[in-house]
Amino acid sequence: MRALVVDHSAPAHLTLTDVPDPIPAPGEALVRVEAVSLNYGEVSDAADPKAPEGTVIGWDAAGTVVRAAADGTSPAAGTRVVTVGVTGWAQLRAVPAARLGVVPDDADLGAVSTVPVAGLTALHVLRRMGQLMGRRVMVTGASGGVGRYAVQLAARAGAEVVAISRNPSRADELRTLGAHQVHTDPAAVEQPVFGVLDNVGGRHLVDAFNAMEAHGTLVNVGRSSGADSVLPPEALLAAGGRHDRSIRTFHLYGEPAADFSADLRWLAAEVAAGRLDPGITWRGPWTRYAEAAQTLLDGRLHGKAVLDIA
């Protein structure tokens, strides 16, 4: 089969080449991939000099089951599915039943391929915050993949959504998605928020933390700011009187046994019905992988990039 693999001598550190077909385990379905979406994390990981040459990467993919799992746990052959894993940028992938969700027959597989990492992350982090109806929730990096889903899901849960995007041109779009307020910097938010989903890290994380009310929780899921320095603890203590606030981290694969099938199915159905907007701003054949990856690495992509697999 053809696949995108790590190649540090190539543009965007990726190359399209032939690799062996995957051999599914008894609990895995073999899926013919028809579309994939890119995330900043996997693209930047490929560019890391430590990434092993020849590794097939890619988290998000959608396609059709060509061989059901031998143990009977997966959907039948011919079923359209969206999948999450670590080897998605290939014509075939072997996927455990818990990591795939059935997709509506009329769904655009390119659109639903944006669901796995971005949609699942937003959904699970917001669930961790508990009851959101009537509460103020901040989303930093709101115009990115996770951020867009988080704004929409939080608004649908009844939250008053405060969206933070460093690009002021995204303000109207974010309000259309459900944001009640849009700012370019969390330091500009005057009224405290109940919780924060932070995609940015660095100084944005500190300012978002200090915008929280007492007993609030910030969940960090990314570091799009590229900030590597460790900020001093006193930087987190500017908001006097707001005690027992906490910072948590989240990683989608932190629970290896997690069953994502129901959530993937629900998110895919919402996208297919037009009730969730994935925000695809770049789409093309997978032969243009280098262009898509570089656009993402350069910070010029606001939304999601999708590659259609030939």
TrEMBL record:
GO terms for molecular function: NADPH binding; oxidoreductase activity, acting on NAD(P)H. Keywords: NADP, Oxidoreductase. InterPro entries: ADH-like_C (IPR013149), ADH-like_N (IPR013154), ER (IPR020843), GroES-like_sf (IPR011032), NAD(P)-bd_dom_sf (IPR036291). SUPFAM superfamilies: GroES-like, NAD(P)-binding Rossmann-fold domains. Pfam families: ADH_N, ADH_zinc_N. The keyword NADP applies. Residues 9-307 form the Enoyl reductase (ER) domain. This is NADPH:quinone reductase-like Zn-dependent oxidoreductase. The lineage of its organism: Bacteria, Bacillati, Actinomycetota, Actinomycetes, Streptosporangiales.
